[in-house]
Specification:
Blueprint (H helix, E strand, L loop, with lengths): L14 H5 L7 E5 L3 H10 L3 E4 L3 H4 L11 H12 L6 E5 L9 H13 L5 E3 L7 H9 L4 E6 L5 H4 L9 H16 L4 E5 L3 H10 L4 E4 L7 E4 L1 H5 L16 H18 L11
Bound molecules: 3-methyl-2-oxobutanoic acid.
Length: 274
């Protein structure tokens, strides 16, 4: 009998297993945009990796997410998919890839799964996207909703401002989240709303709420990778927590390299071929 053992297969998290965690244990989610950080996030035990259109701000240097194209998200999702073994992989439908028609949305979502390797798509909105959510899920494409401060509407909101403080916007967000859930979404991101509204949505909806700036009562929490790692020493949103200061550490490492090159101590004998 052979004594070698096959490498342990990792149990992959799916839209179904994520939905079923509601009321059991809290979900954790992180964004990633490339294979190296996708591998690190996956190895950390995070439940969901999102290729967010936040890549427009974090990777491309734009002021908001609006310039991100479907091709951009497909490209980054492909890279991230190569690094993720266990986590559930979600990709964002970027601005104008789904707003003009249901057909656009179905084709765009199809590309994220077929070419990118995503296992679900995320889209922003409430009542106005419910028909699309229904169509996508009826074709077997799992959908994560996104309500509250939806960044693709930044101009409508007059900036990245907390939403749901006024009665009318509170009502719109609750109705929107219910519509998306009833249309078949398996989870919903709730962004930048008062904690009472995050709690209300978490109690009302049968699917998990994944909060970002929506308080501790949500069924899970998502953060942008750059914020968790402290990659930008000059930027920390109120709702984020930096668990490291890798931006400054990277700058120090680059400066040490520059010093060693100038002083002639790099490369040394151990970095040189004979
Ligand atoms: O684009 C993104 O990264 C997101 C998360 C912040 C939820 O939508």
């Amino acid at each position: 009998m052979s004594t070698t053992t096959a490498p342990a297969r990792v149990a992959k998290l799916s839209a179904v297993s994520i939905r079923d965690r509601k009321g059991k244990d809290k979900l954790s989610a992180l964004t990633a945009y490339d294979v190296v950080f996708a591998r690190l996030a996956d190895a950390s035990g995070v439940d969901i990796v999102l290729v967010g259109d936040s890549l427009g701000m974090m990777v491309q240097g734009h002021a908001n997410t609006l310039p991100v194209t479907l091709n951009d998200v497909v490209y980054h999702t492909r890279a991230v998919a190569r690094g993720v073994q266990r986590a559930h992989l979600v990709a964002d439908l970027p601005f104008m890839s789904y707003q003009a028609s249901i057909e656009d949305g179905v084709r765009a979502a199809g590309r994220l799964l077929q070419e990118g390797g995503a296992e679900a798509v995320k889209l922003e909105g409430g009542v106005e996207v419910a028909d699309l959510v229904h169509k996508l899920t009826s074709f077997g494409i799992p959908v994560m909703g996104h309500v509250g401060m939806t960044p693709q509407s930044v101009h409508q909101f007059g900036g990245f401002r907390v939403q749901g403080r006024q009665e009318e916007s509170h009502k719109r967000i609750v109705e929107g989240a219910l519509a998306v859930a009833q249309a078949g979404a398996y989870s919903v991101v709730v962004e930048s709303v008062p904690e009472a509204l995050g709690a209300e949505l978490s109690q009302t909806l049968a699917i998990p709420t994944i909060g970002i700036g929506a308080g501790a009562a949500c069924d899970g929490q998502i953060l942008v990778m750059h914020d968790v790692l402290g990659l930008d020493p000059h930027w920390k949103p109120r709702f984020a927590r930096a668990y490291a200061q890798l931006g400054l550490a990277a700058q120090d490492a680059f400066a040490a390299f520059v010093r060693d090159v100038k002083s002639g101590t790099f490369p040394g004998p151990e970095e040189t071929f004979s």
